[in-house]
Design goal:
This protein is mainly β. Helices cover about 10% and strands about 35% of the residues. The strands form six sheets. Strands 2, 5, 6, 9, 12, 14, 21, 22 and 24 form a nine-stranded mixed β-sheet that branches. Strands 1, 3, 7, 8 and 11 form a five-stranded antiparallel β-sheet that branches. Strands 13-23-17-18 form a four-stranded antiparallel β-sheet, with no helix packed on it. The termini are far apart.
Length: about 400
């Protein structure tokens, strides 16, 4: 009998295969650096406390910090009154800095922990743009005379495009700093606050593992900074004037506007019209009108680009009434945003953007928003606050899709 031979180059059945295959050299950073997550710490700061535990290193490049806050307490015999900015205003001031002290995210808890994830696209997209859409969110139980609990989550993101904007995390001597001043309970519950409250803050970090090949994330050293700043001057009820945004510089991704009355409260909504906004606002860059539109059209633009405020399953009354339906992601009253992350379509795809239409500014660029007139409010004057995504590149801004 003649023994059969195996053709050269054939695969022998039963030969053990490697558990992990190695990627060929070359290609983008994300091909060689898989996603990872690790614990940072668990803190137990209650109302009025101060979160300042040192962060810990991770074997790679940090792209953001996840935070879950859980609280417990006991309601009294009268229903508690919760601030409209709850639960994020449990944090009075949030500061996220890199190892060199550069402010990456700085501002009040509501703006940094809710508005930035919502409008930036750096947290999620579509139905999960907002931390308020999280499946782990537990609303506060206002039932009187019972023990109650609540839970919410948020994200402090460094990455503004896929793998772009990350910071080094492997060097234990050069780590980011997270500091959170927790708010006084009287500012969170404006009446009949619960007693015996306690809170737990769990912080994890998302990161890219150190790549298996010698390569760095695109534009290492580039940061996207979100700094809360008030505009000047204040706005009298029904006044006609321009309001100047702070001098910025860098490449602007999203402009988030937060309009508040003299008491610091966000202005309430009336259908599709914001109480304090002008009916036809103007956005000017160095005195040149870039946008001059109806406020309602601006709301439509927001729904088109981010789906925020878009109505699902709309119903029109046969008698010609107003549209009814449910917003997949509601627009928080007193706020709106202008996206410059629509390079690929009308949509803001979150981390998928080429950066081609980021607004190029320098420290001398003057941005203004005008209203002729602004809306009327009961408690004036109003203050317009902005949180602007400002990309400060380490060299020339990388445009296109560096991750592919």
């Amino acid at each position: 009998m003649t023994q059969a031979t195996v053709a050269p180059g054939g695969t022998v059945a039963g030969r053990p295969q490697p558990q992990t295959t190695a990627e060929a050299q070359g290609g983008p950073f994300i091909r060689h650096a898989p996603d990872g997550r690790r614990a940072q710490y668990v803190d137990n700061q209650g109302f009025g406390g101060f979160m300042s535990r040192p962060t810990v290193s991770m074997p790679g490049y940090a792209k953001g910090y996840r935070m879950v806050v859980a609280g417990t307490g006991t309601n009294g015999g009268t229903t508690p009154t919760i601030s409209p900015d709850f639960p994020e205003n449990s944090a009075q001031l949030v500061q996220m800095k890199d190892a060199f002290g550069t402010q990456l995210l700085t501002g009040p808890g509501y703006d940094i922990l809710n508005l930035v994830p919502l409008y930036s696209g750096q947290f999620g997209t579509d139905e999960m743009r907002s931390p308020h859409s999280s499946p782990i969110l537990t609303p506060y139980n206002t039932t009187i005379s019972v023990g109650t609990s609540w839970q919410w989550s948020t994200y402090l993101s460094f990455e503004f495009a896929k793998a772009y904007g990350c910071i080094s995390g492997a060097n234990a001597a050069l780590l980011p700093v997270l500091q959170v001043n927790m708010n006084a309970i009287a500012n969170v519950f404006t009446a009949n606050a619960p007693t015996g409250t306690a809170m737990t803050e769990t912080v994890d970090s998302d990161f890219y593992w150190l790549p298996s090949m010698p390569t760095d994330p695109p534009g290492l050293g580039t940061t996207c900074q979100w700094i809360y700043q008030p505009c000047n001057p204040t706005i009298p009820s029904g006044g006609s004037q321009f309001v100047q945004l702070p001098r910025l510089g860098g490449y602007l991704t999203v402009l988030i506007c937060d309009l508040r009355d003299a008491a610091g409260a966000r202005l309430t909504e009336n259908g599709t019209t914001n109480q304090g906004w002008p009916s036809r606002p103007k956005l000017l860059v160095d005195g040149v009108p870039l946008i001059d539109t109806l406020m309602t059209t601006w709301f439509e633009d927001l729904a088109i680009s981010m789906q925020i405020g878009a109505i699902g399953n709309p119903v029109l009354s046969a008698a010609g009434g107003t549209q009814s339906g449910v917003s997949q992601t509601a627009r928080p009253s007193g706020t709106f945003a202008i996206s410059r992350k629509t390079s690929l379509a009308q949509r803001d795809f979150g981390l998928l953007d080429t950066g081609e239409i980021f607004m190029n500014t320098n420290p001398g660029t003057q941005l203004e928003i005008g209203g002729f007139p602004w809306g009327t409010v009961v408690s004036g004057p109003m203050t317009l606050n902005v949180i602007v995504g400002q990309v400060v590149p380490s060299g020339t801004l990388i445009q296109g899709l560096p991750e592919v």
